[in-house]
Design goal:
Structural class: mainly alpha
CATH class of the largest domain: Mainly Alpha
Largest sheet: 2 strands, antiparallel
CATH superfamily of the largest domain: Tetratricopeptide repeat domain
Strand order of the largest sheet: 1-2
CATH topology of the largest domain: Serine Threonine Protein Phosphatase 5, Tetratricopeptide repeat
CATH architecture of the largest domain: Alpha Horseshoe
Number of helices: 45
Number of domains: 5
Oligomer: single chain
Mean pLDDT: 85
């Protein structure tokens, strides 16, 4: 080794020894990044001599690494330090000239770091090497590898002291590469780490921007708000501005600006409100964000939006001390934009928002904010005068409304003012002129009755009544009722307060009339009596009205006996030709009717019926006579007094054939006739009900069926005239209500039965065919009953085929006649097969028996067939033997079918057809089937 090389090695060893010693020292407080650490001489770059430069140290490390078999521990540290020095040298150069880059040294550093990591996989400071390697890649412009190296670091060394900084640098690289999703995750790792790492605030800031770039505004806003919480708040309270450092001020301003941009791009102040709601409520610095948004709008010359942003805070925090300031800024914004109308509106908002009942004053006294009090009074006065003048010129409803509003605010805010009574009367006049009669009445009444008596008291009281009358024609329903009650109270108060006024008696009469219209009968009686007791007496016309109201009120209070007498007294005020006599007489009838109702309610039904009928007898032309008669019949029905009920109902129909209750009479008569056993008459009533198209389909359907059943029952009892009526109703039911499948099937069966009664087989067969067709096409609506009836219909309608079979005689030539008979036999068997397809037990047994007998008859008919002529005795004997052989298959088939039929007994079916098959088998095979006791025991066992 030459002297120079030895010296280099010595320097390197010295440097490494110094590094090893310094590595044991604790890193200084305030260190922010690994880069900062690498620039600290006591931590990363030990200086063996003050005269040594970074370039000399690097050269020394290179020479050391050229030595053969150096100490491995020193070698790895030399590799690391040389790489670090190269990175620092390059960064120093770039600090002086950003365009300058030492690619050679960076390449050397990258190679050294890569070799170190490869050769020393268990190197304890590998996380620091990876960090420096990422710096080298980044400095050389290879962002992809720089990012990949940082990925390795965070993945392999989750506990590295450089983890948070590495995640931050990953976020920066990803963000600059517009990979905002991954960047946001890296920043999230930073903010989820140590909140005092030095990267927390910047991490929140950059996390917010990354999420903003991703369009995830809600999460972005959350990050910025967390940052502002950290920087601006201390235990939920705003930090004094002077306590903020310059970076804190700049960071908070940038965050506020970012949030304002988001709100600007979205829904303005509504977006801010949503941000705060999701953040857990408005923070103490909330007004700064509204202010920042307003400022942003102003910069964009969006003055109205700026004003709305300022106003939004006042709306949301009307009690905040900053609220008036922001509200004033809103007014300024409108003024800058030249929006005169908006300036006016803003002033209106100001006096509303800071009215003395507003939250702003909840914990403040007027003396706590005297300037606000002064502004309120000034603005209220200006606004009232302005809109009053505008209303006088324009006559526009909105100007009247605005003037009234500010008058009210002025009165409410300064009620002790000496001009309050006069101002309130002027407010009433203003409202009256504007057509706001309901509001005018309130102000007039307040002026008349809530201040000490003054010159305008009576005038205001009567003006209120005039306002009531102005508004009344425009109201309906509950609103009108409420209005009447208010008018009545006002009228009674006026008459009581100003009894010497000339309008007093008329006002009292009107009050009584309105009380009656509102069903306030007790009070009507009271006011009417007050009018009748006046001295001197009121006008006769007014007294007539009061007396009539008295009678009506007694009636409506349920005092019907007294009411009847009162109406008689009221009638004395009426001349003979007075049109009101009809109404009075109707009231007399109604009084009797009400007495009947009361007796009915008490359970005295008989007396109630008598009173109902007394209404008809005494006032036959009254409006309620028919109803009374109907109610009498209803009461009789409830008592099951059907004969008398029928009599009353029949009288009703004769007297009122077109009355609206006539349909109900038919229904009651139908039930009454039926209860009395007068079924044909009941059926006729049901027909009448079914024919009414005004009835519901269900009522018509039920009535038609009931009528048909009643006619059918009469027909079965031998009343032949009822056959046609029943058939007509059943046929109408099938035609009108085909969707009622079950009942339509029964109707068709009833029609077939009625045809039998009428001895009309063609009609019977037609309805049986319809039963078969309806069941076949019923689908899911098909029922066991419909199958049974259809199966029976098949058996009935096939009887002509059986008769045809029996009618075919076997004559010579036998071949031809047998062929003909077999064809008919096949048709009969086919029909039996159709019956069997229904799988109805009793039909199956009957069909099976019929088939067995068919085969048996066929065999018998063959044996009984005509013999050929001119046969001698031997030939005839041979011919008979041949016929016997031909009948064997028929007999066997018959036996087989009978045997199959008797097998149904084992399934619990032992009807007449099974019994007949047993009987047939007993004749054919007596040895097996003619054992009565065994058969009976068997059947008993099956049962």
């Amino acid at each position: 080794m030459n002297k120079s090389l030895k010296l280099t090695a010595l320097i390197a060893l010295t440097l490494l020894s110094g590094q090893e010693a310094l590595a044991k020292k604790k890193a200084p407080q305030g260190t922010q990044t690994l880069k900062d650490l690498s620039n600290k001489t006591e931590d990363v770059t030990p200086r063996p001599a003050n005269t040594a430069t970074q370039e000399q140290a690097a050269e020394a490390y290179r020479h050391f690494l050229e030595l053969q078999n150096p100490n491995p521990k020193l070698r790895v540290e030399a590799m690391r330090r040389l790489g670090d020095l190269n990175v620092e040298v390059n960064e120093g150069a770039q600090a002086a000239d950003p365009e300058k880059m030492d690619a050679k040294t960076l390449k050397e550093s990258i190679a050294l770091y890569e070799e170190l990591l490869k050769s020393y996989p268990n190197y304890p400071n590998a996380d620091a090497v990876l960090y420096q390697l990422s710096r080298a890649y980044e400095a050389s412009g290879d962002i992809i590898k720089a990012l990949a190296t940082l990925d390795r670091l965070v993945a392999r060394y989750p506990n590295s002291k450089w983890l948070i900084e590495s995640q931050f640098r990953r976020g920066e690289l990803l963000f600059s590469s517009k990979r905002y999703g991954e960047a946001s995750k890296a920043y999230t790792a930073v903010v989820n780490g140590n909140t005092s790492s030095g990267f927390y605030e910047q991490g929140l800031y950059k996390q917010g921007w990354a999420l903003f770039k991703l369009g995830r505004s809600e999460e972005s806003a959350n990050a910025f708000l967390k940052l502002l919480d950290k920087v601006l708040l201390k235990q939920g309270t705003m930090r004094p501005t002077k306590s903020l450092s310059r970076p804190e001020r700049e960071l908070s301003e940038d965050a506020l600006h970012a949030l304002a941009v988001m709100a600007f791009d979205e829904d303005g102040p509504n977006t801010i409100t949503a941000m705060f709601n999701k953040h857990g409520g408005d923070p103490a610095y909330g007004y700064l964000l509204y202010s920042s948004l307003g400022k942003l709008y102003l910069e964009k010359e969006r003055y109205q939006d700026a004003a709305q942003a300022y106003t939004a805070f006042s709306v949301r925090h009307a009690d905040a001390r900053q609220a008036p300031t922001l509200q004033s800024r809103a007014i300024d914004a409108y003024q800058k934009g030249g929006f005169a109308a908006k300036v006016l509106e803003a002033k209106q908002e100001f006096v509303v928002r800071y009215a003395f009942t507003a939250p702003f004053w909840a914990n403040r006294k007027r003396e706590d904010a005297p300037e606000v009090v002064t502004e309120i009074k000034s603005h209220l006065k200006d606004l009232a005068q302005y809109y009053h003048a505008e209303a006088g010129k324009s006559k526009k409803p909105e100007d009247y409304a605005s003037a009234a509003r500010w008058y009210r605010s002025l009165l409410d805010s300064f009620p002790e003012d000496g001009n309050a009574p006069n101002n309130r009367y002027l407010l009433g006049e203003l409202l009256f002129d504007a057509g706001k009669y309901a509001e005018a009445t309130q102000e007039y009444e307040f002026t008349a009755y809530n201040y000490p008596v003054h010159a305008k008291s009576a005038t205001a009281g009567y003006a209120a009544l005039v306002a009531y009358q102005k508004l009344e024609p425009t109201l309906t329903g509950d609103a009108k009722t409420t209005w009447h009650r208010k008018f009545i109270d006002s009228a009674v108060m006026y008459a009581t307060s100003f009894p010497n006024e000339p309008q007093s008696a008329q006002v009292l009469t009107k009050a009584a009339e309105d009380l009656f219209a509102l069903n306030d009968f007790d009070r009507t009686i009271e006011v009417a009596k007050q009018l009748l007791d006046r001295k001197p007496p009121a006008d006769a016309k007014l007294r007539r009205s009061a007396t009539t109201l008295m009678a009506h009120s007694l009636y409506d209070r349920g005092r019907y006996v007294e009411a009847e007498q009162a109406y008689l007294q009221a009638r004395t005020f009426l001349p003979a030709n007075d049109p009101d006599l009809i109404a009075i007489n109707d009231r007399i009838a109604a009084s009797i009717y009400k007495q009947a109702e009361a007796k009915q309610a008490s359970g005295d039904s008989g007396a109630a019926v008598n009173d109902f009928l007394r209404v008809v007898a005494l006032t036959p032309n009254s409006k309620i006579a028919a109803n009374a008669q109907f109610d009498a019949a209803t009461a009789l029905i409830k008592e099951n007094n059907w004969p008398r009920a029928i009599e009353v109902l029949e009288q009703f129909r004769r007297a009122n054939p077109n009355h609206e209750l006539a349909p109900e009479v038919s229904k009651k008569l139908a039930v009454g006739y039926q209860q009395a056993g007068r079924n044909l008459e009941a059926a006729a009533e049901y027909d009448r009900i079914a024919a009414r198209r005004e009835e519901t389909a269900e009522i018509r359907r039920s009535a038609l069926w009931q009528a048909a059943e009643l006619y059918g029952a009469a027909a079965k009892k031998g009343q032949t005239s009822a056959i046609t009526l029943a058939a007509n109703d059943y046929a109408a039911y099938v035609a009108q209500f085909p969707q009622q499948f079950d009942l339509c099937i029964e109707a068709r069966q009833n029609l077939a039965d009625l045809a039998v009664m009428a001895h009309d087989n063609n009609v019977r067969n037609r309805w049986l065919a319809e039963i078969i067709q309806a069941d076949r096409t019923a689908g899911a609506a098909r029922t066991p009953r419909s199958k049974y009836l259809a199966a029976r219909a098949v058996l009935i309608t096939m009887k002509p085929l059986v008769d045809e079979f029996d009618g075919v005689k076997l004559t010579q030539p036998l071949k031809n006649s047998i062929k003909q008979k077999r064809l008919v036999m096949d048709n009969v068997l086919k029909a039996y097969g159709q019956a069997l397809d229904y799988n109805v037990a009793e039909v199956t047994t009957e069909a099976t028996f019929g088939m067995a007998e068919l085969y048996r008859k066929m065999g018998q008919d063959v044996m009984a067939s005509e013999r050929p002529k001119k046969l001698d005795a031997d030939a005839l004997e041979q011919y008979n033997v041949m016929l016997e052989e031909q009948t064997i298959p028929f007999e066997e088939k018959s036996i087989s079918l009978h045997q199959a039929n008797v097998q149904h007994a084992a399934d619990g079916v032992y009807d007449e057809w099974v019994k007949k098959s047993y009987a047939a088998l007993a004749k054919i095979m007596p040895a097996r089937y003619a054992k009565t006791e065994v058969s009976e025991d068997y059947v008993t066992h099956l049962q």
